[in-house]
Design brief:
With 188 residues, the chain is an all-alpha fold. It has 7 helices and no strands. It is rod-shaped.
């Protein structure tokens, strides 16, 4: 009854509803980012438009059940501007993700480089320790040999010196006074 008293017929009701809802939708579109309107953030915006539309049609005897945007049509230059802003926003987000990824990569690389340096330093320390122990053992063996037979130790040392200083095929001339010649002439 209220519907017929205030609006009179369905075509007028449709025209009034179109005007009210279109106005509310234009306000919503103007006050929000375009990407919000076409993404999952659309639901709360539509709920607010529906709430406001219900208030405006209370006195008409009309009950609004739902308000939805089925399609967004913008003038070409506005649509291009919207798409350009959306692309810029996506590029900004993408750039931020790449920047965060690069930062994380540097952190991970720094950690692995540090751990690698620690492992290598520990390995070098252990190898030097083992080498030192080996050298100490060799020195002890040489010292023991020197104590037992100093002449044999001298002979062995001479051979090592000749071996290290002479290459294959090298000819040498020895004096009869040479210690090596003495060992070759009358071995003990």
């Amino acid at each position: 009854l209220q519907f017929f008293q205030t609006i009179h017929d369905t075509p007028r009701a449709n025209a009034r509803l179109d005007a009210i809802i279109s106005s509310l939708l234009r306000e919503a579109v103007a006050s929000h980012d375009q990407s919000d309107i076409i993404t999952e953030k659309r639901e709360p915006i539509m709920a607010e438009v529906e709430k406001e539309a219900r208030k405006k049609v209370e006195g008409f005897g009309i009950k609004i059940v739902d308000v939805r945007i089925k399609r967004t049509d913008f003038p070409r230059e506005i649509a291009e501007s919207i798409y350009a802003r959306m692309r810029a926003e996506r590029q900004r987000i993408s750039k931020r993700y790449r920047s965060e990824g690069a930062e994380n990569q540097l952190k991970i690389k720094a950690i692995t480089d540090k751990e690698s340096a620690i492992i290598i330093a520990e390995a070098k320390r252990q190898s030097e320790l083992i080498r030192g122990q080996g050298d100490a053992g060799a020195i002890k063996i040489y010292a023991d040999a020197l104590k037992r037979d100093p002449e044999f130790y001298s002979f062995l040392k001479s051979l090592q010196i000749y071996r290290d200083s002479l290459q294959d095929g090298t000819k040498i001339v020895l004096s009869t006074d040479s210690s090596l010649f003495q060992y070759l002439e009358s071995p003990k």
